[in-house]
């Protein structure tokens, strides 16, 4: 089983309701925006979403995983990408949405806590599984469409290509030495695409 799948694997019981999942994410998003990552606890989510704690655990293994799933949705990356018919434009929109998210107060708070976390903490694992892995998967699909649309040559190694894009983004996120901006995202895309021409 993949790392991503294991973080959201279902447990026995009633089928999961997408409306319940949405309510949990809305609650977590509100807590995240008002109080940062430390405010997103299972108890607080349960109270805000009017669900039981076991219900939350049917969707996510812990509070950091819920928080990261909520943060991913606040970035709007998926919706931004879907708003464009061109795969390259959609990919650019995805990275712009991530840049905007990390420039906002909630994004800066998330970045600071992730940067301070050790690699095997629940927070670090949640960031990898709920945020990085899902963004990489979405980007892989878009780059495969870019290849089909002939706006990008077939790379020798797609995983390395994705690392060339996301590596500098998350390096800036974790080191904090320079901002993540739309113009920086554009330069990354242009460099990678140009390198494959």
Which SSEs are present, and which pair or pack?
Blueprint lengths: L2 H5 L10 H18 L6 H8 L3 H5 L5 H13 L1 H6 L4 H17 L1 H12 L5 H27 L9 H18 L6 H14 L2
Helix pairs in contact: 2-3, 2-5, 5-9, 7-8, 7-9, 7-11, 10-11
Quick overview:
With 197 residues, this protein is mainly alpha-helical.
Describe this structure in words.
The chain folds into 2 domains: 3-69, Tetracycline Repressor, domain 2 (Orthogonal Bundle), CATH 1.10.357; 75-195, Tetracycline Repressor, domain 2 (Orthogonal Bundle). The protein is built from 11 helices and no strands. The radius of gyration is 17 Å and the shape is globular. The protein is mostly helical and 197 residues long. Helices cover 73% and strands 0% of the residues. Mean pLDDT is 85; it is low at 1-11. The termini are far apart.
What does the overall shape look like? globular
SSE sequence, one letter per element: HHHHHHHHHHH
Structural domain tally: 2
- CATH class category name of the largest domain: Mainly Alpha
Percent of residues in helices comes to over 70%
Overall strand count = 0
CATH topology of the largest domain: Tetracycline Repressor, domain 2
Largest sheet: none
Which percent band covers the strand fraction?
Answer: under 5%
């Amino acid at each position: 089983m993949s790392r991503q799948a294991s973080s959201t694997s279902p447990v026995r019981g009633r089928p999961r309701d997408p409306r319940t999942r949405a309510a949990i994410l809305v609650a977590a998003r509100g807590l995240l925006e008002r109080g940062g990552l430390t405010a997103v606890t299972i108890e607080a989510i349960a109270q805000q979403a009017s669900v039981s704690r076991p219900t939350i655990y049917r969707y996510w293994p812990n509070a950091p995983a819920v928080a990261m799933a909520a943060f991913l949705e606040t970035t709007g990356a998926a919706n931004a990408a879907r708003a464009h018919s061109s795969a390259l434009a959609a990919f650019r929109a995805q990275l712009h949405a991530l840049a905007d998210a990390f420039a906002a107060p909630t994004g800066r708070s998330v970045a600071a806590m992730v940067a301070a976390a050790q690699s095997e903490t629940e927070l670090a694992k949640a960031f990898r599984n709920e945020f990085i892995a899902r963004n990489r998967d979405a980007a892989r699909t878009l780059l495969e469409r870019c290849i089909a649309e002939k706006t990008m040559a077939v790379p020798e190694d797609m995983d390395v290509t994705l690392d060339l894009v996301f590596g500098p983004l998350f390096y800036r996120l974790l080191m904090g030495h320079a901002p993540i901006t739309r113009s920086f995202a554009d330069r990354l895309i242009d460099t990678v695409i140009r390198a494959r021409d």
